Amino acid sequence: MTFDLVIRQGRLVDANEIRQADLGIRAGHIAEIGSGLAEGVSELDAGGRYVMPGGVDSHVHLDQLSSKGDMTADDFWTGSRSAVFGGTTTVVPFAAQHRGMSIAQVVEAALERAGQHMTVDYGLHVIVTDFSGDAVTELAAAAEAGIAAVKIYLTYDKLKLTGAAALEVMASARDVGLPVMVHAEADELVTRGRDQQVAARELGATSHAVSHSREAELAGVAEAIALGEQSGATVYLAHVSTPQAIDLAVDARGRGVNVIAETCPHYLLLDESTLDQPMPAAAPFLCSPPLRGAAERSGLIERMAAGEVDLVTSDHSPYSMDQKLPNGPGTAFTEAANGLPGIELRLALLYTAAVHEGPLDMLDFVRLVSTNPAKTCGLYPRKGSLEIGADADLVVWDDQPHTVRWSDLHDNVGYTPYEGIELAARPSAVLMGGEVVVGLEADETRPGRGRFVGR
Ligand code: DUC
Ligand code: ZN
Ligand code: ZN
After folding, report:
1. Which of 78, 153, 358, 370 has its CA 20 to 30 A from that of 58?
2. Rg for the chain (alpha carbons), in Å?
Protein backbone atom coordinates (compact mmCIF):
# COMPACT_ATOMS: atom_id res chain seq x y z
CA MET A 1 0.00 0.00 0.00
CA THR A 2 1.40 3.39 -0.89
CA PHE A 3 2.05 6.09 1.65
CA ASP A 4 0.19 9.37 1.58
CA LEU A 5 3.39 11.14 2.51
CA VAL A 6 7.01 10.13 2.99
CA ILE A 7 9.40 12.37 4.89
CA ARG A 8 13.02 11.78 3.82
CA GLN A 9 16.40 13.11 4.94
CA GLY A 10 15.14 13.71 8.47
CA ARG A 11 16.89 13.02 11.75
CA LEU A 12 13.96 11.40 13.56
CA VAL A 13 14.04 12.20 17.26
CA ASP A 14 11.76 11.09 20.06
CA ALA A 15 12.42 10.83 23.77
CA ASN A 16 14.52 7.65 23.33
CA GLU A 17 16.70 7.90 20.23
CA ILE A 18 17.80 9.77 17.15
CA ARG A 19 17.55 7.85 13.87
CA GLN A 20 18.43 8.74 10.31
CA ALA A 21 15.45 7.19 8.51
CA ASP A 22 12.47 7.80 6.26
CA LEU A 23 9.05 8.16 7.83
CA GLY A 24 5.96 6.96 5.94
CA ILE A 25 2.48 8.26 6.76
CA ARG A 26 -0.83 6.67 5.87
CA ALA A 27 -4.34 7.79 6.85
CA GLY A 28 -3.03 10.35 9.31
CA HIS A 29 -0.82 7.94 11.25
CA ILE A 30 2.84 6.97 11.27
CA ALA A 31 2.82 3.78 9.19
CA GLU A 32 6.46 2.85 8.75
CA ILE A 33 9.96 4.00 9.63
CA GLY A 34 12.95 2.68 7.73
CA SER A 35 15.36 3.27 4.89
CA GLY A 36 14.41 3.34 1.23
CA LEU A 37 10.64 3.50 1.76
CA ALA A 38 8.55 3.34 -1.43
CA GLU A 39 7.51 6.61 -2.99
CA GLY A 40 4.54 8.34 -1.38
CA VAL A 41 1.76 10.30 -3.02
CA SER A 42 3.59 13.32 -1.58
CA GLU A 43 7.20 13.63 -0.52
CA LEU A 44 8.80 16.01 1.97
CA ASP A 45 12.57 16.51 2.11
CA ALA A 46 13.54 17.44 5.68
CA GLY A 47 17.02 18.40 4.51
CA GLY A 48 18.86 16.84 7.46
CA ARG A 49 16.74 18.65 10.04
CA TYR A 50 15.29 17.02 13.15
CA VAL A 51 11.78 15.59 12.77
CA MET A 52 10.10 15.25 16.17
CA PRO A 53 6.63 14.54 17.57
CA GLY A 54 4.44 17.64 17.75
CA GLY A 55 4.58 19.60 20.97
CA VAL A 56 1.98 18.88 23.66
CA ASP A 57 1.23 21.84 25.93
CA SER A 58 -0.57 20.54 28.99
CA HIS A 59 -1.00 23.93 30.67
CA VAL A 60 -2.68 26.72 28.70
CA HIS A 61 -5.46 29.17 29.56
CA LEU A 62 -7.73 29.82 26.58
CA ASP A 63 -11.32 31.02 26.49
CA GLN A 64 -11.22 31.15 30.28
CA LEU A 65 -12.75 33.63 32.70
CA SER A 66 -10.39 34.42 35.58
CA SER A 67 -11.60 34.72 39.15
CA LYS A 68 -11.13 38.51 38.82
CA GLY A 69 -13.57 38.47 35.88
CA ASP A 70 -11.07 38.85 33.03
CA MET A 71 -11.66 36.80 29.88
CA THR A 72 -8.40 35.56 28.34
CA ALA A 73 -7.34 37.53 25.27
CA ASP A 74 -6.98 34.26 23.36
CA ASP A 75 -9.94 32.03 22.71
CA PHE A 76 -9.69 28.45 21.48
CA TRP A 77 -9.19 29.59 17.89
CA THR A 78 -6.53 32.30 18.30
CA GLY A 79 -4.69 30.39 21.02
CA SER A 80 -4.59 27.09 19.19
CA ARG A 81 -3.56 28.78 15.94
CA SER A 82 -0.71 30.50 17.74
CA ALA A 83 0.27 27.14 19.28
CA VAL A 84 0.61 25.33 15.96
CA PHE A 85 2.81 28.05 14.46
CA GLY A 86 5.23 27.33 17.29
CA GLY A 87 5.21 23.54 16.87
CA THR A 88 2.52 22.59 19.40
CA THR A 89 -0.10 20.26 17.92
CA THR A 90 -2.00 19.34 21.10
CA VAL A 91 -3.08 21.70 23.88
CA VAL A 92 -4.81 21.04 27.17
CA PRO A 93 -6.73 24.10 28.46
CA PHE A 94 -9.04 24.35 31.45
CA ALA A 95 -12.77 24.25 32.04
CA ALA A 96 -13.00 26.60 35.04
CA GLN A 97 -15.57 25.88 37.71
CA HIS A 98 -16.31 29.08 39.58
CA ARG A 99 -18.09 28.61 42.91
CA GLY A 100 -21.73 27.67 42.54
CA MET A 101 -21.21 26.14 39.09
CA SER A 102 -21.47 22.44 38.38
CA ILE A 103 -18.43 20.52 37.17
CA ALA A 104 -20.54 18.72 34.57
CA GLN A 105 -21.82 21.95 33.06
CA VAL A 106 -18.45 23.70 32.79
CA VAL A 107 -16.86 20.63 31.21
CA GLU A 108 -19.68 20.22 28.72
CA ALA A 109 -19.64 23.91 27.76
CA ALA A 110 -15.85 24.01 27.30
CA LEU A 111 -15.88 20.85 25.17
CA GLU A 112 -18.57 22.31 22.97
CA ARG A 113 -16.74 25.60 22.39
CA ALA A 114 -13.42 23.82 21.87
CA GLY A 115 -14.99 21.53 19.28
CA GLN A 116 -16.12 24.54 17.29
CA HIS A 117 -12.96 26.61 17.50
CA MET A 118 -9.78 24.60 18.11
CA THR A 119 -7.44 24.12 15.19
CA VAL A 120 -5.16 21.67 17.06
CA ASP A 121 -6.12 18.53 18.94
CA TYR A 122 -6.98 19.12 22.57
CA GLY A 123 -7.59 17.57 25.94
CA LEU A 124 -9.23 19.34 28.86
CA HIS A 125 -8.55 19.81 32.56
CA VAL A 126 -11.18 20.93 35.04
CA ILE A 127 -10.47 23.55 37.74
CA VAL A 128 -12.36 22.64 40.90
CA THR A 129 -13.14 25.44 43.37
CA ASP A 130 -16.30 24.05 44.96
CA PHE A 131 -16.36 20.36 45.78
CA SER A 132 -19.89 20.12 47.13
CA GLY A 133 -23.24 18.72 45.99
CA ASP A 134 -22.86 16.16 43.21
CA ALA A 135 -19.17 16.96 42.69
CA VAL A 136 -17.88 13.43 43.34
CA THR A 137 -20.24 11.89 40.79
CA GLU A 138 -19.66 14.69 38.30
CA LEU A 139 -15.89 14.34 38.58
CA ALA A 140 -16.19 10.60 37.94
CA ALA A 141 -18.32 11.33 34.84
CA ALA A 142 -15.78 13.88 33.61
CA ALA A 143 -13.02 11.30 34.05
CA GLU A 144 -15.12 8.81 32.11
CA ALA A 145 -15.48 11.42 29.35
CA GLY A 146 -11.69 11.62 29.11
CA ILE A 147 -10.62 14.79 30.91
CA ALA A 148 -6.90 14.86 31.62
CA ALA A 149 -6.56 16.19 35.18
CA VAL A 150 -8.14 18.25 37.93
CA LYS A 151 -6.59 21.56 38.95
CA ILE A 152 -6.89 23.00 42.43
CA TYR A 153 -5.56 26.18 44.02
CA LEU A 154 -4.10 26.57 47.49
CA THR A 155 -4.28 30.38 47.30
CA TYR A 156 -6.53 33.14 45.84
CA ASP A 157 -9.73 33.89 47.75
CA LYS A 158 -12.14 32.91 44.98
CA LEU A 159 -10.29 29.76 43.97
CA LYS A 160 -8.61 28.20 46.97
CA LEU A 161 -9.74 25.02 48.65
CA THR A 162 -9.38 24.32 52.33
CA GLY A 163 -6.98 21.52 53.23
CA ALA A 164 -9.92 19.22 53.92
CA ALA A 165 -11.57 19.95 50.55
CA ALA A 166 -8.26 19.54 48.75
CA LEU A 167 -7.85 16.14 50.37
CA GLU A 168 -11.36 15.15 49.28
CA VAL A 169 -10.64 16.19 45.69
CA MET A 170 -7.39 14.23 45.77
CA ALA A 171 -9.09 11.10 47.07
CA SER A 172 -11.81 11.33 44.42
CA ALA A 173 -9.26 11.99 41.67
CA ARG A 174 -7.21 9.01 42.81
CA ASP A 175 -10.33 6.81 42.68
CA VAL A 176 -11.02 7.78 39.06
CA GLY A 177 -7.37 7.75 37.94
CA LEU A 178 -6.81 11.48 37.44
CA PRO A 179 -3.73 13.45 38.48
CA VAL A 180 -4.32 16.61 40.52
CA MET A 181 -2.57 19.68 39.23
CA VAL A 182 -1.88 22.05 42.10
CA HIS A 183 -1.27 25.77 42.13
CA ALA A 184 1.02 25.42 45.09
CA GLU A 185 1.61 28.67 46.96
CA ALA A 186 0.80 28.86 50.67
CA ASP A 187 -2.14 31.20 51.09
CA GLU A 188 -1.23 32.55 54.52
CA LEU A 189 2.23 33.60 53.39
CA VAL A 190 0.98 35.18 50.15
CA THR A 191 -1.85 37.02 51.92
CA ARG A 192 0.33 38.29 54.76
CA GLY A 193 2.99 39.46 52.30
CA ARG A 194 0.38 41.23 50.19
CA ASP A 195 -1.25 42.93 53.18
CA GLN A 196 2.12 44.15 54.46
CA GLN A 197 2.98 45.66 51.08
CA VAL A 198 -0.42 47.35 50.83
CA ALA A 199 -0.15 48.74 54.39
CA ALA A 200 3.26 50.21 53.50
CA ARG A 201 1.74 51.73 50.31
CA GLU A 202 4.22 49.71 48.25
CA LEU A 203 1.93 49.03 45.29
CA GLY A 204 4.39 48.47 42.44
CA ALA A 205 5.08 45.22 40.59
CA THR A 206 7.95 44.22 42.87
CA SER A 207 5.46 43.93 45.71
CA HIS A 208 3.74 41.14 43.80
CA ALA A 209 6.99 39.16 43.88
CA VAL A 210 7.53 40.01 47.55
CA SER A 211 4.13 38.58 48.47
CA HIS A 212 4.41 35.53 46.20
CA SER A 213 7.75 34.71 47.80
CA ARG A 214 10.01 31.72 47.24
CA GLU A 215 9.04 30.57 50.73
CA ALA A 216 5.35 30.71 49.83
CA GLU A 217 6.02 28.40 46.90
CA LEU A 218 8.05 25.98 49.01
CA ALA A 219 5.37 25.85 51.72
CA GLY A 220 2.66 25.34 49.09
CA VAL A 221 4.60 22.58 47.35
CA ALA A 222 5.22 20.85 50.68
CA GLU A 223 1.49 20.97 51.40
CA ALA A 224 0.57 19.67 47.94
CA ILE A 225 2.98 16.77 48.36
CA ALA A 226 1.61 15.98 51.82
CA LEU A 227 -1.93 15.91 50.39
CA GLY A 228 -0.76 13.54 47.66
CA GLU A 229 1.10 11.37 50.13
CA GLN A 230 -1.91 11.08 52.40
CA SER A 231 -4.48 10.51 49.64
CA GLY A 232 -2.40 8.41 47.25
CA ALA A 233 -3.25 10.75 44.37
CA THR A 234 -0.73 11.75 41.70
CA VAL A 235 0.28 15.36 42.33
CA TYR A 236 1.07 17.48 39.28
CA LEU A 237 2.97 20.54 40.54
CA ALA A 238 2.08 23.37 38.16
CA HIS A 239 4.49 26.15 37.15
CA VAL A 240 7.35 25.50 39.60
CA SER A 241 9.62 28.57 39.79
CA THR A 242 12.33 27.46 42.23
CA PRO A 243 14.85 24.60 42.11
CA GLN A 244 14.24 23.97 45.82
CA ALA A 245 10.65 23.04 45.03
CA ILE A 246 11.95 20.48 42.53
CA ASP A 247 14.15 19.10 45.33
CA LEU A 248 11.02 18.60 47.45
CA ALA A 249 9.48 16.67 44.54
CA VAL A 250 12.60 14.51 44.23
CA ASP A 251 12.53 13.71 47.97
CA ALA A 252 8.85 12.82 47.79
CA ARG A 253 9.38 10.53 44.78
CA GLY A 254 12.03 8.79 46.87
CA ARG A 255 9.31 8.01 49.43
CA GLY A 256 7.06 6.60 46.72
CA VAL A 257 4.81 9.62 46.24
CA ASN A 258 3.69 10.15 42.64
CA VAL A 259 4.81 13.68 41.83
CA ILE A 260 4.99 15.29 38.40
CA ALA A 261 6.92 18.58 38.28
CA GLU A 262 6.40 21.26 35.66
CA THR A 263 8.23 24.47 34.93
CA CYS A 264 7.73 27.06 32.18
CA PRO A 265 10.03 28.97 29.81
CA HIS A 266 9.51 32.30 31.59
CA TYR A 267 11.19 30.89 34.70
CA LEU A 268 14.18 29.94 32.53
CA LEU A 269 14.62 33.11 30.51
CA LEU A 270 13.15 36.13 32.29
CA ASP A 271 14.38 37.86 35.43
CA GLU A 272 12.65 39.34 38.47
CA SER A 273 14.49 42.63 37.85
CA THR A 274 11.92 43.30 35.08
CA LEU A 275 9.44 43.97 37.90
CA ASP A 276 11.64 46.68 39.33
CA GLN A 277 10.30 49.38 37.02
CA PRO A 278 7.10 51.43 37.08
CA MET A 279 3.91 50.41 35.32
CA PRO A 280 3.22 50.03 32.46
CA ALA A 281 6.74 48.70 31.72
CA ALA A 282 6.55 46.03 34.43
CA ALA A 283 3.06 44.81 33.54
CA PRO A 284 3.99 42.26 30.83
CA PHE A 285 6.17 40.45 33.37
CA LEU A 286 3.58 39.96 36.13
CA CYS A 287 2.75 36.32 36.75
CA SER A 288 2.20 33.87 39.59
CA PRO A 289 4.46 32.45 40.82
CA PRO A 290 6.59 35.47 39.90
CA LEU A 291 9.81 35.58 37.91
CA ARG A 292 12.88 34.81 40.01
CA GLY A 293 16.66 35.39 39.72
CA ALA A 294 19.71 33.92 37.97
CA ALA A 295 20.25 31.28 40.68
CA GLU A 296 16.75 29.90 40.17
CA ARG A 297 17.13 29.88 36.40
CA SER A 298 20.38 27.92 36.43
CA GLY A 299 19.11 25.66 39.21
CA LEU A 300 16.01 24.73 37.21
CA ILE A 301 18.07 23.99 34.09
CA GLU A 302 20.43 21.79 36.14
CA ARG A 303 17.50 19.84 37.48
CA MET A 304 16.04 19.47 33.99
CA ALA A 305 19.34 18.02 32.82
CA ALA A 306 19.24 15.60 35.78
CA GLY A 307 15.80 14.41 34.67
CA GLU A 308 14.11 15.79 37.79
CA VAL A 309 11.72 18.14 35.96
CA ASP A 310 9.04 16.33 33.99
CA LEU A 311 7.39 18.95 31.82
CA VAL A 312 7.93 22.35 30.29
CA THR A 313 4.57 23.93 29.46
CA SER A 314 3.75 27.50 28.51
CA ASP A 315 1.18 28.33 31.23
CA HIS A 316 -0.06 30.64 28.45
CA SER A 317 -2.15 33.19 30.37
CA PRO A 318 -3.02 35.81 27.79
CA TYR A 319 -4.21 39.14 29.13
CA SER A 320 -4.11 42.37 27.14
CA MET A 321 -2.36 45.46 28.49
CA ASP A 322 -5.79 46.94 29.28
CA GLN A 323 -6.55 43.90 31.44
CA LYS A 324 -3.12 44.09 33.07
CA LEU A 325 -3.63 47.79 33.82
CA PRO A 326 -7.32 48.39 34.56
CA ASN A 327 -6.41 51.71 36.20
CA GLY A 328 -3.73 52.73 33.72
CA PRO A 329 -0.14 53.31 34.83
CA GLY A 330 -1.43 53.87 38.39
CA THR A 331 -2.67 50.25 38.65
CA ALA A 332 -1.61 48.59 41.90
CA PHE A 333 -0.10 45.09 41.83
CA THR A 334 -3.23 43.81 43.56
CA GLU A 335 -5.44 44.98 40.65
CA ALA A 336 -3.45 43.72 37.68
CA ALA A 337 -4.35 40.56 35.77
CA ASN A 338 -1.36 38.31 36.09
CA GLY A 339 -0.01 35.71 33.76
CA LEU A 340 2.31 35.62 30.75
CA PRO A 341 1.59 34.66 27.15
CA GLY A 342 3.98 32.10 25.62
CA ILE A 343 2.08 29.38 23.75
CA GLU A 344 3.82 29.99 20.39
CA LEU A 345 7.37 30.44 21.62
CA ARG A 346 7.50 27.56 24.14
CA LEU A 347 9.61 25.18 22.06
CA ALA A 348 11.96 27.84 20.71
CA LEU A 349 12.48 29.37 24.15
CA LEU A 350 13.29 26.07 25.85
CA TYR A 351 15.53 25.00 22.99
CA THR A 352 17.46 28.26 23.10
CA ALA A 353 17.88 28.43 26.89
CA ALA A 354 18.47 24.78 27.70
CA VAL A 355 19.65 22.98 24.54
CA HIS A 356 21.44 25.54 22.35
CA GLU A 357 22.92 27.44 25.30
CA GLY A 358 22.56 24.72 27.95
CA PRO A 359 23.19 21.11 28.91
CA LEU A 360 20.08 19.42 27.48
CA ASP A 361 20.08 17.29 24.33
CA MET A 362 17.35 16.75 21.77
CA LEU A 363 16.03 13.68 23.60
CA ASP A 364 15.53 15.77 26.74
CA PHE A 365 13.89 18.46 24.64
CA VAL A 366 11.33 16.08 23.11
CA ARG A 367 10.68 14.45 26.48
CA LEU A 368 9.97 17.81 28.15
CA VAL A 369 7.83 19.49 25.49
CA SER A 370 5.99 16.52 24.03
CA THR A 371 6.40 13.01 25.45
CA ASN A 372 5.94 13.71 29.15
CA PRO A 373 3.06 16.15 28.74
CA ALA A 374 1.36 13.49 26.58
CA LYS A 375 2.00 10.82 29.23
CA THR A 376 0.77 13.10 32.02
CA CYS A 377 -2.51 13.66 30.20
CA GLY A 378 -2.96 10.00 29.23
CA LEU A 379 -2.40 10.72 25.51
CA TYR A 380 0.80 8.71 24.99
CA PRO A 381 1.78 7.03 22.63
CA ARG A 382 -0.89 8.45 20.32
CA LYS A 383 0.70 11.84 21.03
CA GLY A 384 4.30 12.55 22.02
CA SER A 385 5.84 9.59 20.18
CA LEU A 386 7.03 8.38 16.79
CA GLU A 387 5.63 4.89 17.30
CA ILE A 388 3.96 3.08 14.44
CA GLY A 389 0.26 3.93 14.69
CA ALA A 390 0.79 7.25 16.46
CA ASP A 391 -0.91 10.34 15.06
CA ALA A 392 1.36 11.85 12.42
CA ASP A 393 1.66 15.16 14.29
CA LEU A 394 5.22 16.19 13.51
CA VAL A 395 7.55 19.15 13.64
CA VAL A 396 10.47 19.76 11.31
CA TRP A 397 12.82 21.62 13.64
CA ASP A 398 15.06 24.18 12.03
CA ASP A 399 18.22 25.81 13.38
CA GLN A 400 17.25 29.25 12.22
CA PRO A 401 18.28 32.17 14.44
CA HIS A 402 15.65 34.89 14.68
CA THR A 403 14.58 37.83 16.78
CA VAL A 404 11.23 37.71 18.56
CA ARG A 405 8.71 40.32 17.42
CA TRP A 406 5.14 40.19 18.63
CA SER A 407 4.07 41.29 15.16
CA ASP A 408 5.34 37.91 13.83
CA LEU A 409 3.28 35.91 16.35
CA HIS A 410 -0.31 34.78 15.91
CA ASP A 411 -1.87 35.33 19.34
CA ASN A 412 -4.33 38.03 20.26
CA VAL A 413 -2.45 39.51 23.21
CA GLY A 414 -0.87 42.63 21.70
CA TYR A 415 2.64 42.23 23.12
CA THR A 416 5.14 39.57 24.10
CA PRO A 417 7.37 39.68 27.18
CA TYR A 418 10.10 38.22 24.94
CA GLU A 419 10.19 41.13 22.46
CA GLY A 420 13.70 41.51 20.98
CA ILE A 421 15.10 38.26 22.40
CA GLU A 422 17.26 36.22 20.01
CA LEU A 423 16.16 32.62 19.54
CA ALA A 424 18.19 29.82 17.99
CA ALA A 425 15.58 27.75 16.15
CA ARG A 426 11.95 27.34 15.17
CA PRO A 427 9.76 24.94 13.21
CA SER A 428 10.04 25.08 9.43
CA ALA A 429 6.98 22.83 9.02
CA VAL A 430 4.30 21.52 11.37
CA LEU A 431 2.16 18.53 10.42
CA MET A 432 -1.07 17.31 11.93
CA GLY A 433 -2.49 13.95 10.93
CA GLY A 434 0.11 13.79 8.17
CA GLU A 435 -0.83 17.12 6.59
CA VAL A 436 1.47 20.14 6.54
CA VAL A 437 -0.64 22.63 8.47
CA VAL A 438 1.80 25.53 8.75
CA GLY A 439 5.23 26.24 7.32
CA LEU A 440 6.44 25.64 3.75
CA GLU A 441 4.03 28.42 2.80
CA ALA A 442 1.01 26.43 4.02
CA ASP A 443 -1.66 27.75 6.35
CA GLU A 444 -4.24 25.03 6.75
CA THR A 445 -5.42 26.24 10.14
CA ARG A 446 -9.17 26.51 10.53
CA PRO A 447 -11.57 26.62 13.47
CA GLY A 448 -12.89 23.16 14.27
CA ARG A 449 -10.15 21.06 12.65
CA GLY A 450 -8.88 19.99 16.08
CA ARG A 451 -10.30 16.89 17.74
CA PHE A 452 -10.79 16.07 21.39
CA VAL A 453 -8.31 13.49 22.61
CA GLY A 454 -9.42 11.91 25.84
CA ARG A 455 -7.30 10.44 28.58
N1 DUC B 1 -1.94 30.20 37.82
C2 DUC B 1 -1.77 29.66 36.65
O3 DUC B 1 -1.80 28.44 36.53
N4 DUC B 1 -1.59 30.42 35.59
C5 DUC B 1 -1.56 31.81 35.63
C6 DUC B 1 -1.71 32.43 36.92
C7 DUC B 1 -1.94 31.51 38.02
O8 DUC B 1 -2.10 31.93 39.13
ZN1 ZN C 1 -1.64 28.28 38.83
ZN1 ZN D 1 -1.79 28.44 34.56
Report:
1. 358
2. 21
Report the pLDDT averaged over residues 263-291.
98
> Nearest C-alpha to atom 8 of ligand 1 is from which residue?
288
Instruction: Give a three-class secondary structure readout of the chain.
Output: CCCCEEEEEEEEECCCCEEEEEEEEECCEEEEEECCCCCCCEEEECCCCEEEECEEECCECCCCECCCCCECCCCHHHHHHHHHHCCEEEECCEEECCCCCCHHHHHHHHHHHHHHHCCCEECCEEECCCCCCCHHHHHHHHHHCCCCEEEEECCCCCCECCHHHHHHHHHHHHHCCCCEEEECCCHHHHHHHHHHHHHCCCCCHHHHHHHCCHHHHHHHHHHHHHHHHHHCCCEEECCCCCHHHHHHHHHHHHCCCCEEEEECCHHHHCCHHHHCCCCCCCHHHCCCCCCCCHHHHHHHHHHHHCCCCCEECCCECCCCHHHHCCCHHHCCCCCCCCCCCCCCCHHHHHHHHHHHCCCCCHHHHHHHHHHHHHHHCCCCCCCCCCCCCCECCEEEEECCCEECCHHHCCCCCCCCCCCCCEECCEEEEEEECCEEEEECCEECCCCCCCCECCC
State the ligand closest to the CA atom of 93: 3
Which residues have beta carbons under 5 A from ligand 3 (an ion)? 315
Dist. CA 306 → ligand 1 center (Å): 26
Mean pLDDT of 101-109: 97
Whose C-alpha lies nearest to ligand 1, atom 5?
339
| pLDDT score of 440 | 87
Q: Read off the pLDDT of residues 63-90 as tens digits, 9 standing for 90 and up.
A: 999 999 999 999 999 999 999 999 999 9
Q: Model pTM greater than 0.90?
A: yes
